[in-house]
Structure formats: structure tokens, C-alpha cells
């Protein structure tokens, strides 16, 4: 494993869920992790029915530090370009460079699966702004810091394009993230920076636990990944001396887990949903 005492990462959307899980796994290996999001007070966000959802950037940062890393909470409105620019100016001032950027934020709505979509609120389209556009802006401002590091990784958190569970705007945003990774690869490859799009499976988030409870058996029975599984997979990608062979690709987390021998919870290895929800575009697929 590469020495990571000076590893610096920015995780967009890390108050809870997959972003938090990735932050904790990076923190456990001693990384400085910037925890970026809008939730500064736990419970200020609510799920369907008005139930408060736990988690905040400050709590995640404290947990990252507790497991051996250096967690830094940064409140950021990702719908505002100036906030994103200020975030990376801070990273430059405090750290001087950036190794890993995880583009994970999304403007989610609990009723995004409503059909037909034209009877749902029009503001569900916000996910194209906070979910796609903001990540391109983040990568724009992160680029000089990634170049400064000498070896970098950009991870766009996407999803199976044929799942047909959420609003069409959700899938437009995710398809855009896949294409952005492919396009970034063209320019970043000579600079030793890999750009990938990652498809996790269904993830056991705090919102999910609000609905389904916290039974390990329930989530494993549904084939759901723990939030930290994605972080373990990302760590394996970073440690791969051939990481650059992955650049530009859309990768399925469960398939990477199998490739690198990464498990989730004891006795549970997530399975690829490729046969259920479709494959990445052939041009972007690793297969």
C-alpha cells in the first residue's frame, strides 16, 4: 500500500450516506479529508413524512478525525459557483494540493419516483444543477490542485442508468457524470490523473434506515451495500499501481470489489446489478 500520510481528499456531499462512508475509509488511512455539504446541524434535513435525518458535516469530520484522519468540515452551497471556488481556494491555502476528489452531492427529493414525472414538482430538475453541473464546476476548480499533487483521482458517483426508479432528471444527471469522466480522461491522462464514474448498488443510508429500520439482515437480504463499502473500493482503486488503466470508464462498485478482493460486512459481498439494471455504455464499460 502506498504511504498516505499526506493524502488529501475532498468529498462533496459527505454529511451522511455514501459520502460519509468514503470519508471514513479515507480517514482511517490517515488522510486529510474535506467534508463538504450544506448540513451543519444534525436533524435539520428531513425525509418523507417530515422525519429528521441524522448527520452533519461537523459530525462526519469529527468521526474522520477519530478514526485516524484529519476531518475538516466545510459548509458549501453547491448551487453557487462562488462557494465552490472558495472551497478549493481554502484547500490550496491549507493543503497546497489535492489527491482525490469525490463528486457525490445531489439534490434529492423523497418522492422522485412519482409517475408520470410531469405530475411531480418541476423542481425535481434541481438535481441537474446540484448533482451534475456543480460537479463539473468543482472539477474545474480542483484541476490545478490535482495537477499539483502529481497523482490524482476524480470519482463521479453515478448509478445504473436503466433502474427507472427516480425522476428522469436524476438519470440525465447520472449519465452526464459518466460522460464527464470519459471526457476528463482525455485531458487528465497525460497529467497522471484518473477520472472514473462509479456505480454503487443500493446503499444503506440514514434515510433508508428511517424507513426500513437498522436490521443488518434486512439490508443484506435486499442486497444493499454499507456506506463504507464504496470507500473500501475507492481505496483499492487508489492503491492500484495500474489505476490509470481505469480512467474514463464507468465502473460498478461490486465488480471492483470482486476484482480487488474487497468485502463489505463480514460474510457479505455485494453483487453487481448489471443483469438487472443494465450495463454502462459500451464505450465507457470496463468489460
Automatic annotation (TrEMBL):
<keyword id="KW-0614">Plasmid</keyword>
<dbReference type="InterPro" id="IPR002347">
    <property type="entry name" value="SDR_fam"/>
</dbReference>
<dbReference type="Pfam" id="PF00106">
    <property type="entry name" value="adh_short"/>
</dbReference>
<comment type="similarity">
    <text>Belongs to the short-chain dehydrogenases/reductases (SDR) family.</text>
</comment>
<protein>
    <submittedName>
        <fullName>Probable short chain dehydrogenase</fullName>
        <ecNumber>1.1.1.-</ecNumber>
    </submittedName>
</protein>
<dbReference type="GO" id="GO:0016491">
    <property type="term" value="F:oxidoreductase activity"/>
</dbReference>
<keyword id="KW-0560">Oxidoreductase</keyword>
<dbReference type="InterPro" id="IPR036291">
    <property type="entry name" value="NAD(P)-bd_dom_sf"/>
</dbReference>
Amino acid at each position: 500500500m502506498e504511504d498516505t500520510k499526506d493524502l488529501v481528499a475532498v468529498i462533496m456531499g459527505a454529511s451522511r450516506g455514501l459520502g460519509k462512508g468514503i470519508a471514513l475509509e479515507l480517514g482511517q488511512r490517515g488522510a486529510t479529508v474535506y467534508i463538504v455539504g450544506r448540513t451543519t446541524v444534525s436533524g435539520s434535513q428531513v425525509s418523507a413524512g417530515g422525519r429528521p435525518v441524522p448527520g452533519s458535516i461537523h459530525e462526519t469530520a469529527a468521526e474522520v478525525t477519530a478514526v485516524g484522519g484529519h476531518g475538516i468540515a466545510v459548509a458549501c452551497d453547491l448551487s453557487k459557483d462562488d462557494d465552490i471556488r472558495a472551497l478549493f481556494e481554502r484547500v490550496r491555502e491549507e493543503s497546497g494540493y489535492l489527491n482525490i476528489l469525490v463528486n457525490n452531492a445531489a439534490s434529492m427529493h423523497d418522492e422522485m419516483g412519482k409517475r408520470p414525472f410531469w405530475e411531480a414538482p418541476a423542481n425535481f430538475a434541481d438535481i441537474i444543477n446540484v448533482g451534475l453541473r456543480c460537479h463539473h464546476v468543482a472539477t474545474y476548480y480542483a484541476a490545478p490542485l490535482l495537477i499539483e499533487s502529481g497523482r490524482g483521482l476524480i470519482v463521479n458517483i453515478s448509478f445504473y442508468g436503466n433502474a427507472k426508479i427516480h425522476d428522469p432528471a436524476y438519470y440525465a444527471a447520472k449519465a452526464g457524470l459518466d460522460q464527464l469522466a470519459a471526457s476528463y480522461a482525455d485531458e487528465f491522462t497525460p497529467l497522471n490523473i484518473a477520472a472514473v464514474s462509479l456505480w454503487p448498488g443500493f446503499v444503506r443510508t440514514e434515510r433508508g434506515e428511517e424507513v426500513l429500520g437498522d436490521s443488518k439482515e434486512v439490508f443484506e437480504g435486499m442486497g444493499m451495500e454499507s456506506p463504507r463499502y464504496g470507500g473500501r473500493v475507492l481505496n483499492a482503486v487508489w492503491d492500484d499501481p495500474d489505476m490509470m488503466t481505469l480512467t474514463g470508464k464507468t465502473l460498478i462498485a461490486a465488480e471492483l470489489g470482486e476484482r480487488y478482493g474487497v468485502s463489505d460486512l463480514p460474510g457479505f459481498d455485494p453483487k453487481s446489478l448489471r443483469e438487472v439494471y443494465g450495463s454502462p455504455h459500451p464505450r465507457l464499460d470496463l468489460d
